[in-house]
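From the pipeline queue, job 12 of 40. The input is one protein chain; the requested action is below.

Action: predict structure.
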Amino acid sequence: MSSDRAPRMRSGLPRAKGGGPWPPGGMTSGGTTGGGSPGAEPDSAVAAAPAPSVEALAGKAVVDAAGGVVSAPRGALRRGLPRAPGGESWPPAGEAPPASGFVAEVATGAAGSLAPPAPASDEPVTDVSSVRTGIALRRGLPRAAGGDPWPAEGRAPAGTVDTSPRGGAAAVTPLEIATEASAPATPAPEPEIEAAMPAQAAVAPPAPAVPVPSEPEPRMIGSRSPARWAKLGAGGLVGAVVVAGVIVLAARGVTTLPGVPGFLARFPGEYHPPFAADEGFPVWARWTHFLNFFFMVLIVRTGLLVRYQQKPPAFYTPKKGGKKISLYLWLHTSVDLLWLLNGAVFVVLLFATNHWVRIVPTSWEVFPNALSAGLQYLTLEWPTENGWVNYNSLQQLMYFAVVFIAAPLAAVTGVRMSEWWPERAKRLNRLYPAPLARMIHFPVMLFFVLFVIVHVFLVLATGALRNLNHMFAGSDQVNWVGFWWFVAALFSAAVVTWLARPLVIAPIARVFGRVSNR
């Protein structure tokens, strides 16, 4: 509730040096002295003042838009240090509400518009028709050294004062500016979106990205690129030459040891069989020899593709149904069948004639003669060659191992890993597991590759023209006929190996089954 008379203001420090306390004694918070002296507001202005608000009850001083005090809390003011050296504690003893500073809190007026606080100025407040004069402003310390007290002389807008519920006089605390109910509210213009938002520069659409040509992925052969394979091959060739040089020097050193020259004289590198074989090489021997080399190249090529290719380019399914396999695996097994058929023909004709004596040992002398022939090869002093009639013992053992040991191992292990193997034969699978076949099959392939390399090297190193005439021209003469047949054989094997790709293989595979991409 509000009191029926305005409370008296407490006098403070003088506004000027040597002056009296301010405000003068007896002045009320509404600007009157003793209840009705000049400076009092008309009753209409008092009546027009708004009623106490929630902020007033909460202990905040509320002023209207004209600066008049609407309500203020009450309470004893806490005293602090003096404002001047040797002076009294400030503020002087007395009861007043705690002041928290001249902090304006913006409040919404009756019309809902925002009333901004009056700008701070050193000039005195100028009375206008909408502003009511009230109590004089209390001046404090200067804002600059040697300056006048601040604020400048003037009068604060006055308003009606409401007492607190306890009935005591309310002192001014941080001001909250409110719109005076009697003053017409001027609606604030609605802010424009363009003004509220920061201006955005027109952004041009990004220019289309220029495609950077990506480098094509290098073609892989197995797990390495051709360049990588070339580097490895060059490094391996250099290493092989170095190792070969060391071996040759070591072998020649062995031939100088005591007893070794006599051993070489006793076992020259070959022995005479119990009966003589037919001289030369018949047509069937020459053609099976060429086809064996031809099929071996394709088998090794397709076998490596099957072993290292992660995603097959196409798949093959038999016409009568069966397991779907990759197209390269179908070619690999198909060439295996042709290779086995060629080998079977060779073995049958080998024993149908007396040509078998060439590659089947008939005496235990084969072993010391093979050791002697090997030592002579290592010293680069080739043993006596007479291949038109008989092989040396080392050749005999190697050919026997290729035909009767390595080839059957390759066939048996290949069948175990193929789709022709009965998967439901549990006992047979337990006795001969697939991992064992796989572990044997790949080393056998490496043996064939190494044998072909060494065999071709020795053919060319120990009398190329004569040896090539033996196997390709069927002649013991020394001319170039066998050499050109050898070049033609290499060219045909290279061309067929290059053509072993899905574009060429698929039409052939469709004759025997169905080819699909998945």
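Job complete. The chain has 14 helices and 13 strands.
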